[in-house]
Amino acid sequence: MVRIYITLAICLLASYGYSQQRITGRIIDDAHSPVVYATVLYINANETTLSSKDGAFSFTLLPHQDSVRLRINFIGKQTKYISYPVSNIPKTPVIQLIDQSLTLEEINVLPTYSQDGQSNSSITIDRQAIDQLQAFSLVDVMNSLPGKKMQPLDMNSLSTLNFRGGFDMRRGIPETNATTVQQLNNSLGIAVIIDDMRISNDANMQAQGFARGGFNRSRINGGRYRDSYFGNSDTKAYDTPFQGIDLRDIPTTNIERIEVIQGIAPARYGEVTDGAVIIDRQAGKSPYVVSFNINGGSTGSSVSKGFQLPGNWGAINFSTNWTHSNADPKDKVKSFNRYGQSIIWTRSFDRFKNTLSLDYSGRNDRKRQDPDDETLRTSQFSNNRFGISNRLRYEIDSKWVKSLQLNANISAGKQESYSSYAMNKGPIFPVANLDTTGVYEGAFVDGRFVAEEIIIGKPLNGSLALSANSSLPWGTVTHNLQYGINYTISNNGGQGILSDPNRPRFSGNNDQNLRPYSYESLPTAQNVGLYIEDNFNVKLGERTLSNNIGVRYDIQNGYGTLQPRINSRLRWNEHWGFTAGFGLGSKAPTLAHLYPGPVYIDYDLALATTGTLDSSFYLLFTDRFTPDNSKLKPSKSLQFEFGVEHRNTFFTSSIYTYYKRNWDGFAQQQQLRRYILPEYNFWFNQETGKYEYAETGKQIIRGGFLDFNMINGARSETWGFDWFISTPRLPLINTSISLNTSFSYNKFSSVGDEADEPPQRIDLENGSFIKSVFYQPTAHNNRMLMSKLNTVTHLSRIGFVLNFSADINWMAKQNVTSSLYPTAYLDDDINYVKLTDELLSTEPFDRLVRTSTDASRLIQPMTFITMNLGVEKEIRKNFRINLRGYNIFDIRPFKITQLANGEELIFNPNSKPSLTIGTTIKF
Description:
- Pfam families: CarbopepD_reg_2 (PF13715), Plug (PF07715), TonB_dep_Rec_b-barrel (PF00593).
- Residues 120-271 form the TonB-dependent receptor plug domain.
- It contains 7 helices and 53 strands.
- It is mostly beta strands.
């Protein structure tokens, strides 16, 4: 920190008055009217401003630059890139923005690698590409990225995001939806940033009894249902504690631009270990835009409009969206609903520019009672959120500080998870219903009841960020500094877990039963971060080396983490470029990690029933304790990236190779519990009609590896590359071609030793026997190779675009290797005994050594292709018709593979064809 402050002081003291040259321009539209509140990025300095009410903008130019590069974008207009040689900068350039239209000569309907992004390998997706994808949510947009498989629309399944190395093999197919510990950490470490504000999931506590079920089995599941497209669906979870947000919650209605960072993020972004998705929305005068999409039982609609307010009151933009989906329209048992509204008001006055955003969104996953389901199962998962954010920017433009920006954000919501299930446990049923520690008499209840699982959370997230930027000329190099501080809070004041012990859904699960747990008095998590980053160019002869070098320091859960980050690009000449990057990142534990709730372990000591509730007898022991996760450290990642870029008149190509290491990830580990309990005799007293009991003087031993504890134990390594090659539009066929190829190799080990039962009963000399054997953690390694082929045929004269895409899944493998040699055993007296090499060579412990590594291998049995087609036709620039088909040729490979353990694996990776039809009207 001392070095950071010294650097800042040098910057301020050395910023003496130098000859400052400015560029002052004006932005107009097709009708030569000023475009108000267009976003103008001065790429050289990474500085942004908004055009004024007369369309004007102004920048102080950096010295020692070869050219001035600008990017201008505005809602409903085609993004424009301009480069002026320093020797020929217009005095007052007038820049015309053209309405987005398929009749333009140049359009971009695909995600592209951007050389002006915030990371070397940034991928940008503009409004035209989002429209062409007919996205119901951010899920559809992210599936178009390199390394991601296009999927048919499925609004009835949760969808989170994973990047490099965040996949696992299931059914012989790479899956990215977070289920494993590694995937949960990968998803949690991806920041989704909307209008400079991170959308936080840190206050999400929709999990019950983490100690009983760990990450996945502590979430409430919805019941099975029939999907008219995917067939019979198994139970699913719809809450996202311990991971990133559900992408279905983010509509694409008023998104102007998306930048995806899979590599090294700039130092200004905190809480990032595995990537970032940066979403820009804008307010400004725009026509009514009404869109409607339909796919099977799913419909999505949206309306947006921007108004220019009178006088100096700025511009305001309204947008609303609604999505509804029935898994099977014939029975309407499973449905999904999402609705959202947003208001964005931008105002500029004097040197101040202010943007106020109000957002409300709601989502409801519901399963009604199926008349054919004897369990009468129902479920409902809702998530409602209201957020308010404000961005205030003050243009100082002095030799000391160029601008100051203050961002404030607060969001509050209500999350409710509910599931009911008809139970039949016989005429009467014993329950553990107290939250005390000790021996006591339990209760009997009627064994036929409806069990309810309920979690009510009220997440509250807030952030405050102050930043500034300055320019420091130092010889022939100008350093563009950005520095700031941010503060975030997370809290959850919900009712928490509402559990009726007399109607348990799961009873005695690993000797544990659920009790109520309130979130109302939980502490508030607070994190602080500081950063400074320097953007500068260095001339190396005729070559230019561009650098973004920064460092941030975060204090997360009381732990400080220093995170240097570097992105550099060497422009060798007009054809070749080379990139290199290095960065550290960290992610704080969430409230669900820090405060998992008390643990209750219950053991039966005496049980007798007479068939009636009053006279039956139940004696048990309960141990209640609260896990202390206050020492959880932030998870961390380190990443190196190297790239080569080439451009000529025939094609453009780039390849980015990377190495990523994650450690201190959040993991679960089972704890050994050993209890010495008194033995009891009990008898029925005929006079009182009650059971009585007394200690026998003997003891019984109970326990084992029971409850889960949270630790910083997950770690993994990932290597890979992303290779992109594309051609310009070929004039004879009006078609451009692009190919993205991604390879990823990931390895990690399970956390904690692997428990196994001995092959046969093994007695020990002391009269006990071996109950469980423990081996070293299982080693995993996954590899995947896939390509995305895209052709875009654009007939500008008639406003027509045809996009053909093919996902080529070349190879996917997963190897799981178990250890030969045991590390310890557990006997029937719950004694945990470590094994040495000497013991393993003696009888009977030598029989615990496995005869093979018991390795299992899951291999994609064949290369398979999924072909998709998108068609878009524009009529008079204000009416569009869209068609998008998934698996248009109905290619559905099928193979049954016999695994080593005798299990049959059914490989059928492609679903049946799916068609989305949509329209967009502007007026």
